[in-house]
Fold:
Amino acid sequence: MRFHRLKHTFLRLSTEEKVTLMGGLAVLLSSFFPWYEVNLSIDEKRLIETGFSGDLGVIGFVIFLITLLAVLTLVGEHMGFRMPTFGYQKERVILFLTGQSTFLLLLTLAVYTKRSF
Structure:
């Protein structure tokens, strides 16, 4: 029964909302995958950091929460939840949240890229 409701909700979304939802779900899932890996040649050990580990784990957690809030705002109306919009249109709230998440992802990518050089 739950799957039918989720499928019906997904089919009611516009094309733009579907793309935003799929991107948000990709960010949420990628938080659990390795973001950075280094092979230490000294003792054959590997340093692996996911979105929630290491010194950038707090940023990964914030990215996860912001994206989760954006996804909930996107589908909440269709699922019967009343999400606060703080006096703004739903689209503006989603744009703000996804923009913040993207900025933090790019910042994290820049830090990990600098470390790899």
Notes: The mean pLDDT is 83.
